[in-house]
Q: What sequence folds into this?
């Protein structure tokens, strides 16, 4: 007696596909490497930072050469020593190149152009009438400090500098705007990096499906919409597991590093809502991109073709990111509205908006709009799959007919 | 008239303007073992894919288990595609249960049945092995069991015998007979006619995307004349003029189609011509001969209808 199996709804069928994909990916080696993915940029960033600071430290800083009479040069050096505790690196380092005898003349231009002087610029004259010779940008930057040094020489050593009491405020409105902009930028970049990583995962999953030739088994058993939905949501589930793991690890490192959360600039909608919206927009960005990748992958006939076709999509994804980033700099403009309306840039643009604008209604509308596009793309991908793929038999027209005739003709 | 498991009228499928299937009509009675025969590239797989709803026809009507929407009755159908596909990392039991789950069978029940099926078919030792660890033939058997785990009323097998050794081909033939005895409708495509001849009640021959013949195997065999096998003592003589034009000799044995006038006038001529008849038998044409004749005629018609090819281009 036959029993036990019954008709599956599209969602139930999608669940069967998603469950298999989710567990298969979660326990695969590729997922382990996926989890390790962010580690590599982090390690590279740390290494590059450390190397950069070493390079920076080892780089020779420009020096101001002093060519004056001995007393004036000594007075300038004393003045620098007095001002240094208050001004630090804002003062140029002084090197006495030459102590002039009374009445002796010195051609600073000639010394610099002949590269004989071991200084970026040369200070001549007297503290009362200093002359600064050197590249224009540098002498403009050093004009003020040199004037201060000269004033210090002229006023004697008795000048004292009072300690300034510091009274920090939480944030000025300008600083708040700047902070929110930074948060928006950071959120957009994070979203972009996550979707880029996932695109790779979707692609490798498709490559596996192509290799296994299981797609026909799935297509025969359940509607293609269910196959697409199942695959998309399985990968979304996997990515959320990955994000939770990274967030936990990042949080531990953050707290372990002693960085207090108060130092982060507050987004307009507040941190909890921004994180919630971030998850939703990430899901939307991924579903939109993933459905395109699925459509491409299911239509392609070879793994190589899948990879080739994915290249323009990746480039387009990059363009979308740049578009959304540009739109962020023009709030309320037609460009920003366009970025919100274009489905692929919409999650990026809206996440940036969440960091800068407290209004929530636009997010509800945008999420609805994005869901609609996900549904359309899944539908479209499934339809394309059904109409364009699963060809069998001869690819060319005339040749097979000749072959059949030879085989069966009498 | 028995209810139909499959009914298709005028199915057409074009790929890039080329008609891979060009007006296929099929009527498969419930409970039958039905063969779809055709040379490579004839349109068998495309026809099956349309029947199953994997692809939609450009024209025509399909009705499978009474439904025009194949996915609505997917839980009652088992399908083995020509290009076998299983997840290599899955264990055999899980693979079978997963295929059942796709057809609406709860996973737990699927696992229980998978164990049972594997044991019954001598594959119990492979139950917990990954598909990638199995031989190609064993993996194929696992997929066949996955096709049947949800106990479908209609089983569609695309080239099921390819990739199996002779022993496993025999095993599969027995399995198909058992399914038919249990009331399951079995449809399979093949280009190896012997399987269809042994198993099928009815066949459809597909050639060039069309169905030049569909009906009982006996009717297909009757489409070409019976064959005469004649062995004579004399090698030559006047009697040879009585042989039909298509007679061909292999040693002392002549083969030719039974003449329209029957065997008696020929016998008389042989006796009068002193041919020395050692043996004479009339054999009914095999399905293979019928297939070659029907598919060949269709191909010839196809060629004649193609102006480009007539021109020798």
A:
């Amino acid at each position: 007696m036959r029993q036990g199996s019954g008709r599956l709804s599209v969602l139930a069928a999608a669940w069967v596909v998603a469950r298999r994909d989710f567990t298969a990916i979660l326990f695969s080696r590729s997922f382990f490497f996926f989890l390790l993915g962010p580690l590599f940029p982090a390690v590279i960033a740390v290494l590059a930072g450390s190397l950069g600071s070493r390079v920076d430290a080892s780089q020779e800083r420009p020096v101001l050469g002093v060519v004056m009479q001995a007393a004036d040069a000594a007075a300038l050096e004393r003045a620098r020593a007095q001002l240094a505790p208050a001004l630090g690196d804002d003062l140029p380092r002084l090197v006495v190149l030459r102590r002039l005898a009374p009445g002796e003349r010195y051609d600073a231009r000639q010394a610099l152009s002949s590269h004989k002087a071991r200084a970026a610029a040369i200070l001549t004259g007297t503290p009362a009438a200093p002359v600064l010779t050197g590249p224009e940008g540098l002498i403009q930057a050093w004009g003020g400090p040199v004037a201060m040094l000269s004033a210090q020489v002229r006023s004697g050593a008795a000048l004292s500098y009072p300690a300034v009491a510091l009274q920090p405020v939480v944030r000025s409105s300008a600083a708040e705007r700047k902070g929110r902009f930074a948060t928006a930028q950071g959120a957009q970049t994070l979203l972009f990096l996550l979707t880029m990583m996932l695109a790779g995962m979707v692609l490798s999953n498709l490559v596996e499906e192509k290799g296994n030739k299981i797609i026909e088994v799935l297509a025969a058993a359940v509607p293609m919409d269910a196959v697409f939905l199942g695959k998309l949501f399985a990968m979304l589930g996997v990515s959320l597991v990955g994000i939770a793991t990274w967030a936990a690890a990042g949080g531990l490192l953050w707290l372990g590093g002693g960085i207090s959360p108060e130092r982060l600039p507050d987004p307009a909608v507040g941190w909890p809502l921004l994180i919630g919206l971030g998850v939703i927009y990430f899901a939307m960005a991924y579903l939109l991109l993933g459905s395109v990748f699925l459509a491409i992958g299911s239509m392609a006939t070879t793994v190589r073709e899948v990879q080739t076709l994915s290249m323009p999509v990746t480039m387009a994804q990059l363009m979308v990111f740049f578009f959304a980033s540009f739109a962020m700099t023009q709030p309320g403009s037609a460009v920003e509205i366009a970025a919100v309306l274009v489905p692929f840039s919409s999650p990026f643009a809206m996440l940036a908006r969440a960091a800068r604008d407290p209004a929530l209604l636009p997010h509800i509308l945008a999420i609805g709009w994005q869901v609609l596009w996900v549904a359309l793309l899944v539908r479209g991908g499934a339809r394309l799959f059904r109409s364009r793929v699963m060809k069998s038999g001869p690819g060319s027209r005339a040749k097979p007919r000749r072959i059949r005739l030879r085989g069966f003709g009498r | 008239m028995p209810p139909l498991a499959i009914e298709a009228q005028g199915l057409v499928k074009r790929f890039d303007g080329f008609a891979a299937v060009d007006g296929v009509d099929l009527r498969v009675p419930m409970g039958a073992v039905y063969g779809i025969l055709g040379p490579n590239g004839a349109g068998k797989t495309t026809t099956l894919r349309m029947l199953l709803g994997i692809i939609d026809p450009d024209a025509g009507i399909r009705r499978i288990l009474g439904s025009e929407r194949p996915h609505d009755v997917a839980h009652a159908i088992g399908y083995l595609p020509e290009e076998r596909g299983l997840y290599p990392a899955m264990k055999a039991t899980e693979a079978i249960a997963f295929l059942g789950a796709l057809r609406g069978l709860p996973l737990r029940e699927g696992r229980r049945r998978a164990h049972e099926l594997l044991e019954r078919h001598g594959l119990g030792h492979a139950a917990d092995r990954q598909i990638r660890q199995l031989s190609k033939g064993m993996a194929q058997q696992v997929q066949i069991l996955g096709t049947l785990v949800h106990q479908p009323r209609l089983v569609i097998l695309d080239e099921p015998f390819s990739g199996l050794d002779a022993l496993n081909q025999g095993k599969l033939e027995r399995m198909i007979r058992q399914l038919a005895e249990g009331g399951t409708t079995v449809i399979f495509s093949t280009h190896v006619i012997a399987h269809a001849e042994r198993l099928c009640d009815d066949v459809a021959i597909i050639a060039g995307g069309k169905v030049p013949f569909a009906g009982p195997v006996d009717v297909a065999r009757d489409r070409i004349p019976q064959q005469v096998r004649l062995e004579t003592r004399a090698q030559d003589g006047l009697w040879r003029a009585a042989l039909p034009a298509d007679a061909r000799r292999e040693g002392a044995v002549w083969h030719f189609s039974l003449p329209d006038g029957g065997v008696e006038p020929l016998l008389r001529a042989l006796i009068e011509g002193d041919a020395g008849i050692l043996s004479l038998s009339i054999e009914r044409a095999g399905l293979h001969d019928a297939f070659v004749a029907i598919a060949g005629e269709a191909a010839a018609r196809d060629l004649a209808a193609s102006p480009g090819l007539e021109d020798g281009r």
User: Anything to note?
Assistant: The radius of gyration of chain B is 24 Å.
